[in-house]
Design brief:
The complex is a heterodimer of chains A (409) and B (379). Chain A contains eight helices and 25 strands. Chain A is of the alpha/beta class and 409 residues long. In chain A, strand 21 and strand 22 form a beta hairpin. In chain A, helix 3 runs parallel beside helix 5 and helix 6 crosses helix 8. Chain B has 379 residues and is α/β, with parallel strands linked by helices. Classes of the chains: A alpha/beta (409), B alpha/beta (379).
């Protein structure tokens, strides 16, 4: 994560005085519109040691990717959240995109930019905070993009707008203070192994996006250079690509299966080793035993990434859920692990402050303590643990935007 | 009313009549169905002996299940991620897994050849075991409780090639037949293992209302196919509530689509039809811990309660009548009376179909007397 967070300069801000809002904050780079009329502001920014660029020209060491405003997708003209195929609210997140880009562009900071809200769109402050938290939790930076009302309010230094601005900067500072979190690796049960490019780009990208919605904790592994270590500690690997794997990739994945892994793939994989198990059947997959593990091959090349994501979850089994959230209908989670074994579960309220009921989290594993980090607080609060078979449960307070659950074994 | 009749005492008494009264008895064959009540403070070690004693008081499980395939419909209403506050679902609106495991174990011990656990998982075709895992349950606890235990999500076609058609005697109130997952016919004994709760639409949900969930949403749900059952289930049973469309054309439509389109009229009738079409051989209703005010946390206001009671019987109407009395309601209540202020009584409608009696005077209660087991759901 780049400590210099980016701000998309609002088009209507023509006065350099507005840079006072940025000066001395964690917003270290301003992205200016690709239009004339901002030269005096840019010059003043440089005098203030604030970097500048535009959306098409990222600074060195930064990858700017186009994302979307994270949150609960609302049905136009209605107050209700629209539903996905499961009936659950449809959550938009840039988490998968940040993670994929970080994997592909190792060492680069990832900035996620979404189109500015429409001029008549009401954007509550919580939506800005969710956007920041969603990116930061996954190790990226949100290109802070003000809505018209907030930009106008700030230009006029209206107290409500200035208070909102402080909270926004506070959220960025919170993640800056926990910069090490972005270096923690995912605590995954499954790997998605793909080229993520060419003919496989659309399907594999959507698979990552939709697998996050199904609450499968996954790692992202490039098929080129796949090593046995990439699959260590995992229960399953998905190879969704529409072309047969190379001999080397095939060997690594089959060795993973022989050691008690599960491989989920399509028919382009080619001939399957092993024998079909008698007891297990699946409407869309042929399942074979191989070594200590299993291979599930789709009978037809998967065309619906959501269906494949759901099938992968069931083939893997909910037994290996890292996190289960109860009454957390608008919450999304991302599980990470520190080098010293501490776990951190990022919980993001994509509804932004509209949580009706306090949630309960069930996290797999045995832990002796847990604490909760909130955007609004400087220190962490202790969480009571209810030890269960193969996991712990904890009661969460209502999360306005974000809670980081840190666990020690 | 009998109170503390043991199986041995019961057998001894029955021996005088040369033949032991069959465990499975319909209302007509046995005009005085027997219902057992057991007090149990929690889901600990007392649970198994309490349930064993109740089954003994009913004449023993062996006569019912030995060498048979037993299908047990449990109650896991709604999705697994919904809780009343922080309480696990089994402490409020789901049948508790320990009651399920105890039932399976006792069935196995009584010689059941196979026990099949059934539920229509909310809006999903996933295996029932996976649904249970999402609820923080351990399916292996059930697998280990009896020699052969299977699971089936009955919201979908499952292992069969087509849905099984069950007809409603006398044509039913609303449906003269239902198309159901094969597990409801591929069994010798059908058990409804329910939770004792209030219900926002039907007044109460007990062993009979539990069977509303035997209807597959692929045919009777919001996402049901128009001509044929859908492959994937989606959503709930809104069309059964509202009557805004008919089930898939492959199934038998409503008897009279001009009847009221109100859920408080429809649901009690559909449930009565269902238990007439798929008779319940053993009704078990659990309320060691439960909730009052509604059938799930989505009904507000509602509260968690600990009645510490179990009720079981071989006639579902009689069993539900005793449950109502235990809850502090009058089982003879009709529309306009608690808990049926806004709906018709499923018990009355099932009685009209000849399923069983709801009048306590026609029911033999054994075990704990009602007055000692009573836990008023409405304060």
């Amino acid at each position: 994560m780049n400590p210099n967070w980016p701000l998309r300069w609002p088009e209507e801000w023509r006065e350099a005085g507005a840079l006072d809002l940025v000066k001395g904050t964690s917003l270290g780079c301003v992205l200016f519109p690709q239009a004339d009329g901002y030269q005096n502001v840019i010059e003043r920014a440089h005098q203030l040691d604030i970097a500048t660029c535009d959306i098409e020209h990222a600074p060195t060491g930064v990858e700017i990717v186009k994302g979307e405003w994270p949150g609960i997708r609302m049905t136009p003209g209605q107050g209700d959240a629209s539903s996905g195929p499961t009936g659950a609210p449809w959550i938009d997140s840039n988490g998968w995109l940040v993670r994929l880009t970080r994997m592909q562009k190792t060492g680069s900071a990832v900035w996620v930019a979404a189109d500015p809200p429409k001029s008549n769109e009401v954007v509550p402050l919580s939506r800005h905070l969710v956007a920041v938290a969603d990116c930061a939790a996954h190790g990226g930076c949100w290109v802070v993009t003000l809505d018209k009302d907030l930009a106008a309010g700030l230009a006029a230094r209206k107290p409500e707008a200035v208070d909102g601005w402080r909270k926004l900067i506070g959220a960025i500072d919170f993640f800056g203070a926990h910069h090490e979190w972005s270096t923690w690796r995912v605590d995954a049960a499954l790997a998605v192994v793909s080229s993520f490019a060419g003919d496989n780009e659309f399907f594999s990208h959507e698979l990552l996006n939709l697998m996050a919605r199904t609450n499968v904790s996954y790692s992202i592994v490039a098929v080129d250079g796949l090593r046995p270590d990439d699959l260590n500690g995992l229960r399953a690997a998905v190879y969704p690509d529409a072309n047969a794997p190379s001999a080397k990739v095939r060997q690594v994945l089959l060795e993973f299966v022989e050691r008690d892994g599960l491989l989920i793939t399509g028919p382009r994989w080619g001939n399957l080793p092993g024998a079909p198990p008698a007891a297990e059947s699946h409407p869309r997959y042929e399942i074979r035993r191989f070594g200590k593990g299993r291979i599930a091959m789709a009978r037809k090349q998967p065309e619906d990434p959501y269906e494949m994501a759901q099938d992968a979850q069931i083939l893997l089994s909910h037994r290996y859920d890292r996190v289960r959230l109860f009454n957390g209908f608008l919450l999304g989670s991302y599980c990470t692990m520190a080098p010293d074994g501490r776990r951190l579960v990022h919980a993001i309220n994509y509804g932004g402050g509209t949580q009706d009921d306090a949630a309960t989290a069930r996290i797999a594993g045995r832990y002796r303590s847990a604490k909760l980090w909130l955007l609004e607080r400087t220190g962490a609060q202790r969480l009571e643990l209810d030890a269960q078979r193969d996991g712990v449960e904890m009661r969460l307070p209502p999360l306005d935007v974000y809670g980081g659950i840190e666990l020690e074994a | 009313m009998h109170t503390d009749c043991t199986r041995r005492q019961w057998l001894a008494a029955a021996a005088g009549a040369a033949l032991v009264r069959p465990f499975v008895a319909t209302a007509t064959a046995n005009p005085t169905p027997r219902v057992a009540i057991g007090k149990c403070p929690d889901y600990g070690p007392e649970l198994l002996p309490t349930m064993q004693r109740m089954f003994d008081q009913l004449g023993g499980l062996e006569r019912l299940v030995k060498g048979k395939t037993v299908a047990i419909k449990v109650n896991m209403t709604g999705d697994t991620n919904i809780r009343l506050g922080h309480a696990p679902a089994e402490d409020t609106h789901y049948t508790h897994p320990r009651v399920i495991a105890a039932t399976v174990h006792l069935m196995g011990r009584a010689g059941a050849r196979r026990v099949r656990l059934l539920e229509s998982c909310w809006s999903s075709s996933e295996p029932l075991q996976e649904f249970m895992l999402r609820a923080n349950w351990e399916p292996r606890d059930f697998l280990g409780a009896a020699p052969l235990v299977e699971f089936e999500n009955t919201n979908v076609l499952g292992r069969a090639r087509k849905y099984a058609r069950l007809t409603t005697p006398q044509g039913g109130h609303m449906f003269r037949a239902f198309d159901l997952n094969h597990s409801y016919t591929d069994c010798d004994v059908f058990v409804s293992l329910a939770k004792m709760k209030d219900h926002a639409t039907a007044g109460v949900t007990l062993s009979m209302k539990n069977c509303f969930g035997i209807t597959p949403v692929t045919i009777y749900g919001d996402g049901a196919g128009i001509d044929e059952p859908s492959i994937e289930p989606r959503g709930g049973r809104g069309i059964m509530h509202a009557g805004n469309r008919q089930p898939s054309k492959s199934a038998v439509p409503e008897n009279d689509p001009k009847t009221p389109r109100e859920d408080t009229y429809r649901i009690p009738r559909i449930v009565a039809d269902l238990v007439a079409a798929r008779p319940i051989d053993l009704a078990i209703v659990e309320a060691i811990r439960s909730m009052a005010g509604g059938e799930g946390p989505w009904v507000k206001p509602s509260r968690a309660i600990s009645p510490g009671v179990l009720v079981a019987g071989t006639n579902c109407v009689a069993t539900d009548a005793v449950c109502m009395a235990v809850m502090g309601y009058d089982p003879m209540a009709v529309r306009g009376m608690a808990p049926f202020e806004k709906c018709d009584s499923t018990l009355q409608l099932a009685e009209e179909l000849g399923v069983g009696p709801r009048d306590l005077k026609r029911i033999e209660v054994v075990g704990t007397p009602i007055r000692e087991a009573m836990f008023r759901y409405r304060v």
